[in-house]
Amino acid sequence: MRHAHSVEKVRAAEAELMARLPEGALMQRAAAGLASVCARLLGRLYGTRVLLLVGGGNNGGDALYAGARLARRGARVTAALASPRIHEEGLADLRAAGGRVLSFALLEELLSTDGGAVGTFAGTDLVIDGLTGIGGRGALRGLYAPLVRDLPEDAAVVACDVPSGVDADTGEVEGEAVRADVTVTFGTFKPGLLIDPGASYAGVVELVDIGLDLPEPDVIAHTTADVRLPRPLPESDKYRRGVVGVLAGSSEFTGAAVLAVGGALHGGAGMVRFASSEPVVELVRGRWPEAVTTSLPSDAQSLEPVGRVQAWVVGPGLSVDSRAHRLVHAALESDVPVLVDADGLNVLAGMSEPLRRGLLDRAAPTVLTPHAGELARLLGADRSDIEARRLAHVRRAADELGATVLLKGSTTLVAAPGAHPVLANLTGTPWLATAGTGDVLSGLIGALLAAGLPAPEAAAHGAHLHGLAARLAAAPDPALSPAPVTAFDVLTSLPAALRRLPAPASP
Ligand SMILES: NC(=O)C1=CN([C@@H]2O[C@H](COP(=O)(O)OP(=O)(O)OC[C@H]3O[C@@H](n4cnc5c(N)ncnc54)[C@H](OP(=O)(O)O)[C@@H]3O)[C@@H](O)[C@H]2O)[C@@H](O)CC1
Ligand SMILES: [K+]
Question: Keyword annotations for this protein (predicted)?
Answer without folding.
Answer: ATP-binding, Isomerase, Lyase, Metal-binding, Multifunctional enzyme, NAD, NADP, Nucleotide-binding, Potassium
